[in-house]
Amino acid sequence: MGHLGAGDVVKLAEPGGLASYRIDQFEQGDQGLAQAVRVDETLYEGSSLAQNPLELPAATPITPVFPLFLDLPLITGDELPHAPYIAATAEPWPGPVAVYSSRYDADYTLNTLVKSPAVLGVTLAPLAAATPGILDHGAPLVVELTRGSLSGVTSEALLAGANLAAIGDGSQDNWEIFQFQSADLVAPGRYELSGRLRGQLGSDALMPAQWPAGSYFVLLDGTPEQIELAASGRNTLQYFQIGPAARPYSDYSYRKLSAAFAGNGLRPYAPVHLAQKWDGADLEFSWIRRARLDGASWDLAEIPLSETQERYQVKIFSGAQLLRLEEVHQAQWRYSAAMQALDGAQGLLELQVAQLSESFGPGLRRKFRFTI
């Protein structure tokens, strides 16, 4: 046994078979004395990783949110008229989204928390202009949503203001407000919207001949919220950092934006029903004003003014050339023969009329073409 030593494992015969022993102490001598402990060799055999694979939870990446600002007309009349809305979405949604703001590109402070994603998407087909105030039964508007869903409503709910939405090019000012009665799911996340009421809340003056495919769609269901903006902040460039509230605004997941907001809740609607008539060699124009506040009731004897005084800006154009600029205090104006001669007005001309606001300036314009 001279070749054995401490740490060696030997096998000894026992009833039932061989048993393994580890030598802990060995004394050299005529007979050799050893102290040993029985061991189980299987404890020291390696195991295959394939038998017990390590399963890690799938990581959910934080993706940048997609925000849109909407400087909209008053919807309920209870909003801050000068503050824009923000709509945000992401897939997956990271939880509350923080909107940090500053009047310069530093020292940002928390402005607003967006708690829920907006129902937001893009159009997959063009939408042609339609007459406001009556149901548009044209081709369905095809919309693909980033997330969320749409549903149809009854005629009664539609007339009560349900399914209000905005379509636009993504800039903060250029949004047409409309409603839809039917929303048919035609593919995952894809809807066809029909039975539309176009140019709502005075946005008919912003309706183009056609909204192209790729225009943005935002459901105005109460999820888009107004940001904090002082009245003195109108028309002043503001800087924003927008991203997951769980991360600092220095994180890669934040988007930096800048914008100046006009405060379109203060903007007068464009007049309607422009008309002309000749009185000898003079031209008389007339129109009807509209109210951005409290003007929806059929019981009103007169349309509310919504401004401190009644004033309009009148322009006459020949092509792109401005021939005349006037301010009038009633919903009519006479373009006298003497004015026409002085302006050199002849051929196809265009009249533009906008109501004036002391807080906003000229509102949306109504255009009317005529010939002299």
UniProtKB/TrEMBL annotation:
Rcc01698-like C-terminal domain ranges (all copies): 118-218
InterPro entries attached to this UniProt entry: Rcc01698_C
The name this protein goes by in its record: Gene transfer agent protein
Organism, scientific name: Planktomarina temperata RCA23
Lineage: Bacteria, Pseudomonadati, Pseudomonadota, Alphaproteobacteria, Rhodobacterales
